[in-house]
Amino acid sequence: MMVMTRDRGYGDLLSELRGRRVLVWTCGTCARLCDGLGGRESAERLSESLSRDGVDVVGTVSVGASCVIQKVSDNLPADGGFDVVLALTCDIGAGCVGDRCRAEVVNPVLTFGSGYLAADGTPRLRSVVCGRTVSDESLSEVSSRHGVPTGPYV
Q: In CATH, what number is assigned to the domain containing residue 45?
């Protein structure tokens, strides 16, 4: 699983999206498991908040894994109707969406790297070099060290 969190606050995201037609896209696997950053419910709440704050949100899409090109291709709206995709995914998922659509992709997510979901449900970032674990930290520890918040935007 990819371990990730937000890279900015809601106000900054709102400023970047105002005046644009936005498709909110999210992954229901890793992004959802990383303290609810992504996933259908989080994306729908964010879409509603953005709409209330004047952003033209044209739709919300949640797929099981945005790193699977066929899932991206199968779920992109055929009619377009948007000029930016807000991708609540890891950087790989956002890149896959960008490869399949003609719109700009905004990815307000900081991807730390690969990890796992601990037995207690805590996302953990694990770094392995030559088969040896050199670090194993919780998402909250990594986010704190980098000075960024965890959890969904709203």
A: 3.40.50
Residues listed for the chain = 154
Q: How far apart are CA 127 and CA 142, in angstroms?
A: 12
Q: What is the Cα–Cα distance from 48 to 9, expressed in whole angstroms?
A: 16
Strand boundaries in 47-131, DSSP class E: 56-63, 84-88, 104-106, 109-117, 123-129
Residue 40: give the domain boundaries. 2-113
In the chain, the number of structural domains is: 1
Establish if 153 belongs to a structural domain.
Answer: no
List phi, psi (to 5°) of 12.
-65, -40
Query: Rounded to an integer, what distance in angstroms lies between the CA atom of residue 132 and that of residue 116?
Result: 16
CB 22 within 8 A of CB 97: no
Tally the C-alpha atoms within 13 A of residue 106's C-alpha that lie toward its C-beta: 21
For the entire predicted model, the pTM comes to 0.95
Q: Which amino acid makes up residue 79? A: D
Both tokens of 80, joined, read 């377009």
Q: How confident is the model at residue 78 (pLDDT cuts 50, 70, 90)?
A: confident
In this structure, what token pair is assigned to residue 26? 């999210």
Q: Collapsing DSSP states into helix, strand and coil, what is residue 39?
A: coil
